[in-house]
Amino acid sequence: MGRSGRLFLLVRPYALLFVANLVATFVASVLDGATFVLLIPFLRTLFGLAPLPELGGSSVERVLAVVVGPLLAAGSAQGALRNVVLVLLATLALKNALTYLAAVSSVVIQENVVRDLRVQLFGHLQTLPLGFFQRTRGGQLLSRVINDTDQVKTVVTAALASLMQNVCVLVVYVAILVGLSWRLTLVAIVCAPLLLLIVRPVVGRVRRRSREQADQRGELTSLVSELVGSIKLVRAYVADGFEAARFRKLADGYRKGVLRAQRFALLTSPVSEVFAGLVIVLIFAVGTRLALGEAGVLRPETLIAFIAVALRLMSPVKSVANYPTAMAGALAAADRVFEVLDLASEEGDRPGEVPARFEQRIEYRGVSFAYNGQAPVLAGVDLQVLRGQVVAVVGPSGAGKTTLVDLLPRFYEPTHGEILMDGVPIARFTRTSLRRLMGIVSQETILLNDTVLANISYGRSDFTLEQVQAAARAANAHDFVSQLPEGYHTLLGERGTRLSGGERQRIAIARALLRDPPILILDEATSALDMESERLVQEAIDRLMAHRTTFVIAHRLATVQHADLIVVLAEGRVVERGSHATLYAAGGLYRRLHDMQFRT
Ligand SMILES: Nc1ncnc2c1ncn2[C@@H]1O[C@H](COP(=O)(O)OP(=O)(O)O)[C@@H](O)[C@H]1O
Ligand SMILES: [Mg+2]
User: Collapsing DSSP states into helix, strand and coil, what is residue 314?
Assistant: First the structure.
């Protein structure tokens, strides 16, 4: 579906409101035109003529005679004048009331559309593969969800509301003009296509630049969000000057781009106004000739009303002429939003997938993996784990340990081979049910800007405080949590910086314990901890591992000596496997890694 079709779909839920908006606008335009047409009886009274010509006159005047004629016919010139003024005020009040309603409904429509689009985009982001997030800068995403969706509302208001409003006004006014004098109207209409010729080159130029600008805006957002995320690094390396210069350069590039495009875009308004001025002069010239020439073709008061309405037409003409330029930026933003929406979602359950079940064994069979087309990170890994066993994966960093366990919850799919659960390939299971079987504690614990309680019960609201406390006790976290100012209701700061590494880790362990999953994945959960907290964390982990099938990746080999199976990984291949005793005796890589750690 084309872009405009998709934009239209966004507005469709608000079609009724939209139609109401159009009707209000249309009626307001008619009333607005009427205020000008009321000039005619006013001027005629002023010139000492009857308020309306008895016979003949333009069609507008005939309509006027029917609608307000009785009001004007009665009494003196003074009385008629007063009546004209009253009608004028009433028309003005009604017109503005309608204009206000139309404006409010426009805002309602546009904000609803933006909300819908944001929610849709956010929802879609959740379904994108992990690789997408690793490739894409966070700031660009932020910019797409926040800035670009907001720009899209310009399309909605400009394209649908404002354009249609202006077209309404144009139609009504041109009808009034035709009603006043079709000859003069013809003069104006013949000139109109010229305006398009003037505006076109500008639009092309602005359109080409707009995409560039939207991307640059995204880069700016990225830089800010990255600075916030790495502020400690920036301070530590005294890199603030460097960062400021980088940001300045980007901001300046953006400024230049916008200036280049705007210098042209801003031309449309003055050019179209001067052009409209010329047309008015032309109307004056032709109009005076008609008014002064052959009697009856055009009355002076009609000419004045005609000019007044024609002048009033300038602003909608300008808006319509400006419209393609104004739209260019919004359309570029819409493209950036639709690009993300068009990415194939990988997450989410597929038809034919069934709920995962795990009773006896997990098996990696000839599993290879490469991150999007790069060199393989895992090559032909075979592995069998029985229910209740503890498997330790060890090896130098970069060997592929994390990747190996990331395949189990289907964060990524193997490029070759398969992983089976009780003989069923896990690709047949829904991801949600598969992941519910697992508790994952990774090296970097991610804490949310929320309470301890919310952090432990993350993503679910059906756990009681007692359950959370029990999990925290088992994770050796209860004691320090109780000492926090508000206990389990203490807010953890931005990224939980108020807690130490060991404390964060224990919160993460409590999170996994609370769910009581049959499979546990511990990826270097104890690395980078001091001795005391390591003992506390290790105790928690031992409790966590009891009666569960566990994959444990550990730097410190002391922590894996009691594993049922130790798998040694090097450059993506399993190079050794066995128990601590056999591997140690074999004197291979495991022995070397072990000796390096225990040399002191
Ligand atoms: N998201 C990723 N995209 C591309 N390459 C990656 C990604 N994650 C890890 N790698 C690469 O895969 C290899 C194995 O990484 P990893 O599984 O994290 O090793 P380990 O956990 O054993 O240290 C490394 O060479 C690393 O650079
Ligand atoms: Mg790792």
Answer: helix
Nearest CA among 398, 405, 397 for reference residue 367: 405
Task: Pick the atom of ligand 1 nearest to 396's CA.
Answer: 22
Give distance in angstroms: CA of 121 to centre of ligand 1.
29
Task: Give the distance (Å) from ligand 2 centre to CA of residue 581.
Answer: 25
Q: Which atom of ligand 1 is nearest to the CA of 400?
A: 17
Q: Class assignment of domain 3-342?
A: mainly alpha
pLDDT band at 529; cut points 50, 70, 90 = low
Domain extent listing, the chain = 3-342, 361-598
Q: For the segment 359-395, what is each residue's pLDDT rounded down to a tens digit?
A: 889 999 999 999 988 899 999 999 999 998 999 999 8
Ligand number nearest to the C-alpha of 134: 1
Distance 407 CA to ligand 1 centre (A): 12
This prediction has a pTM of 0.76
Atom of ligand 1 nearest to the CA of 130: 1
Other CB atoms within 10 A of residue 384 CB:
14
* Nearest-CA residue for atom 9 of ligand 1: 403
Per CATH, 3-342 and 361-598 having the same topology is answered no
Separation of alpha carbons 360 and 389, rounded Å: 10
pLDDT tens-digit series, residues 237-250? 888 889 899 999 99
Ligand 2 center to residue 406 CA distance, Å?
Answer: 10
Superfamily for 361-598? P-loop containing nucleotide triphosphate hydrolases (3.40.50.300)
Phi and psi torsions of 361, nearest 5°: -155, 150
Closest residue by Cα to residue 20 from 91, 114, 108: 108
Lookup: tokens for 451: 């309470």
Q: What does the pLDDT read at residue 494?
A: 65
